[in-house]
Amino acid sequence: MKLDQEQIKRLFLSLLLLCALLYGYFAYLLGPLQQSVVAANNGINSTIPAISDDKKQIATTADLESKAPKATAFLTAIKNSIPDGEPIAWFPPKMADFFKARGIDKCTTNIVSESPDTMPGFKRIVWTIDVPKIGFVPLGMAISTLENTEPLMTVTNVSIEAMREDAEYQHATLTVTTLVKS
Amino acid sequence: MPLHVNLYHEVQAQERARQRDPLRLGMLGLLVIAIGFVVYYVIAVGSAHTVASQYAALQSEYSRLDPKAQAAKAREAELNDSISASDTMMKEVDGRFYWAPVLDQILQTVPLNVQLTQVGASLGSPASGTNVLTITGISSASEPRKAAEQLRTALAARLGKQFKNVNAFFKTLDDSDEVVVLNGARLPTATFTIEFDLKVNDPALDTPPPTRHAKT
User: Fold this and answer.
1) Which partner from A2, A12, B46, B85 sits 20 to 30 angstroms from B199, CA to CA?
2) What one-character DSSP code corresponds to residue A82?
3) pLDDT at residue B202, as a whole number
4) What is the pLDDT of residues B46-66, one digit of tens each?
5) Which of B35, B51, B125, B136 to mutate to test the interface with A (most CBs of A within 10 A)?
6) pTM for the predicted model, two decimal places
7) CB-hemisphere CA count at 13 Å for A166?
8) Which of A144, A161, A178 to mutate to test the interface with B (most CBs of B within 10 A)?
9) Chain A within 8 Å of B126 (Cβ-Cβ)?
């Protein structure tokens, strides 16, 4: 079979057209489609772990939230135990009442210094509690009770001096540090 | 035998030639391929649409979850801070040094022939972990210095049961001119000051209340 000139020309043109169509098909139809599929797959691959992480984070927080009241109960109780207002207004009367309840009428409490604590929301106050006349045993019991019932108080210094005029009694000075809300 | 004459052979030859035209056959082939490409493209579009809708659903879920997760993260940090603060507070409270047991030990150790005139107790720095107890008094015995020494060793031994390391030493120990009458006997006296360096045990001691009378 022999092709004439006209047929060769038409065949050539057809091949050109075919090439153009193939180029258009791959470059403008299939190519972008594949790119969008690849992009979507990449997105899926990165979104699934992100969703998993988010779910994990939400679950962790929910778990922590359920445990938190128990874990922070101590701090909550401590905070609730601190009276509102300036410590100078409530701490000296509290100490006076404390010693009065133990038969010691005279007790002077003075503030020495005040500084912020390392724990946010708290400050540290140093006080001196001067008890001019007290027996050794009542003093020991009072210190014991203070140490056991006042968790935010630390007795940093105790000075006990025998009284010259009455050897049964002592003059005691306590230096205590308290944590209060700042 | 009848003679058969085909008067249309030229027409038929032309028809055959037309049917066997390579251009036509090529075009038919191309048409088939093109239909194949179109079908493939339609399938690919369907597949891409499925993937895209899956991605869109995931993105929608992510955009719904992510703000919650961010809020949860912030809340977690807040809760961790609270828990950490609570733990720190608990450690601080539990780690306090209690002086009442020390006073109790003094109360139980000081014998009748010793009178304490001064007791000083102070917390050392947390870094050193050493607290200092100082007692000053008068001992009366036939050998008053020995009585003071007995007090030092006895109190050091008692405190040694509660603290890691107790270092007890005399700051002063002097004979005194005073004479004390004890149980009808006149006894010489000595004044002393003893310092006890108490290395703190961990955890801190409990605080039983004192049970006996002191002899200060």
Assistant:
1) B85
2) S
3) 54
4) 999 999 999 999 999 999 999
5) B51
6) 0.70
7) 9
8) A144
9) no
Residue with tokens 């230096």: A175
At residue B128, the 3 state secondary structure works out as coil
d(CA B103, CA A135): 12
Write down how long chain B is: 216
Q: How does pLDDT run across A87-129, given as a tens digit for each residue?
A: 999 999 999 999 999 888 888 999 999 999 888 888 999 999 9
Residue B123 has pLDDT above 50, yes or no: yes
Reading the block at residue B123, the tokens are 């917390």
Residues B67 and B106 in one domain: no
Domain A84-181 matching CATH 3.40.50.1970: the answer reads no
- The answer to whether the beta carbons of residues B201 and B101 sit under 8 Å apart is no
Q: Report chain B's terminal Cα–Cα distance, integer Å.
A: 162
Domain of B122, in residue numbers: 100-199
- Same domain, yes or no: B62 and B130: no
Query: Considering the domain boundaries, does residue B213 fall inside one?
Result: no
What is the Cα–Cα distance from A152 to A135, expressed in whole angstroms? Answer: 25
CATH number at residue B136: 3.30.70
B216 in any annotated domain: no
Quote the minimal CA–CA distance from B7 to chain A in Å.
Answer: 24
Q: What is the ipTM of this complex?
A: 0.74
Interchain CB contact of B86 with A (< 8 Å): yes
Three-state DSSP at A109 gives strand
- Tokens coding B175: 């004979």
Number of domains in chain B: 2
Name the average pLDDT for chain B.
86
pLDDT of residue B106: 92
Higher pLDDT: B201 or A60? It is A60
